[in-house]
Design a protein that fits this description.
about 280 residues, alpha+beta, Fructose-1,6-Bisphosphatase, Chain A, domain 1, D-Maltodextrin-Binding Protein, domain 2, 2 domains, 3-stranded antiparallel β-sheet, binds adenosine-3'-5'-diphosphate, binds magnesium ion, 3'(2'),5'-bisphosphate nucleotidase CysQ
């Protein structure tokens, strides 16, 4: 493949190649999955867990991406600090979470993913979220389309976010998400719509659910990093939604000293007039 840096990587061929890499990395993760309670766990500086499964997936993806596209740097959640320190010089790079939802992995809930985004000029222009247990990818290229892709049977199914209907909106969130700001958001929904439904999931599966038309909003006020969000942003944007900061502006990546994401709300139907009120309520 070896595309030069001037080539357009936003293609189905790229997604096919990424899925092959994700299959390998997913198999490396699954080798640790059953009996994950016995795997050695380190605690990182943000007090999230790190295991041999995260590192095995990181190594395969880092080497695989650099082998296929030597001109495009790779920034992974598990990259060494020396790599992370160079990132502000990059206009285009792969942003990778080799195992998103390590807690879910350790508790064997099945809700963990591999996230890969191609970031160009501070926006994700391609994103892929891979679920190793299902061998299923959710991928999007904004402006071209979003798809659910079966790694085993090679099937491609088009995805689209849903329009906001007349009933209760469905909130996508993790069962672990609590806190006063989420409670405020849910109260606002109850006031504006008379109630809300909730679909819980771990890791980037919330973005997959939105792109597949299973939810209306994913409010995130608890800490997470750009590698947790960028692939989902590309996917949801490609499926007709948007991932907005509380000023209503699409998120930008690799433009701050920190890689922590700002608070955001992902919306399946960003044109619905009700959301201006929600963003206003959450911004204050
Ligand atoms: N204190 C913290 N600081 C930064 N990120 C955090 C965090 N606590 C949780 N996260 C992020 O939230 C992700 C899990 O999201 P969710 O709660 O929606 O399942 C974790 O992904 P990893 O498992 O890749 O570390 C981690 O990146
Ligand atoms: Mg993560």
């Amino acid at each position: 493949m070896n595309d030069s840096v001037t080539d357009n990587l936003c293609s189905r061929n790229t997604l096919d190649a990424l899925i092959r890499l994700c299959e390998q990395a997913g198999n490396a993760i699954l080798a640790y999955y059953h009996g994950a309670d016995r795997i050695e766990v380190e605690s990182k500086s943000d007090r999230t867990p790190l295991t041999a499964a995260d590192l095995a997936s990181h190594r395969l993806l880092d080497e695989g991406l650099q082998g296929l596209w030597p001109d495009v740097p790779v920034l992974s959640e598990e990259s060494p600090l020396a790599v992370t320190a160079q990132r502000r010089e990059w206009d285009r790079f792969w942003l990778v979470d080799p195992l998103d939802g390590t807690r879910e992995f350790l508790e064997e809930t099945g809700q963990f993913t591999i996230n890969i985004a191609l970031v160009e000029s501070h926006r994700p222009v391609l994103g892929l979220i891979y679920q190793p247990l299902e061998a299923l990818a959710y991928a999007g290229i904004p402006g071209e389309g979003a798809w659910q892709i079966g790694a085993c049977d090679g099937s491609w199914r088009e995805l689209a976010c849903r329009s906001l209907g007349g009933g209760f909106p469905t909130v996508l969130a993790s069962a672990r998400h609590r806190g006063p700001r989420l409670a405020h958001c849910l109260d606002w929904l109850n006031g504006a719509f008379g109630g809300h439904d909730r679909l819980n999931s771990g890791s980037a599966i919330k973005f997959c659910d939105m792109a597949a038309g299973r939810g209306d909003l994913y409010p995130r006020f608890s800490p997470c990093s750009e590698w947790d969000v960028a692939a989902g942003d590309a996917l949801v944007s490609a499926a007709g939604g948007a991932v907005l900061d509380l000023a209503g502006v699409p998120l930008r990546y690799n433009c701050r000293d920190t890689l922590l994401s700002p608070d955001f709300i992902a919306l399946a139907d960003p044109t619905a007039s009700q959301w201006r009120g929600l963003l206003g309520a959450m911004a204050t």
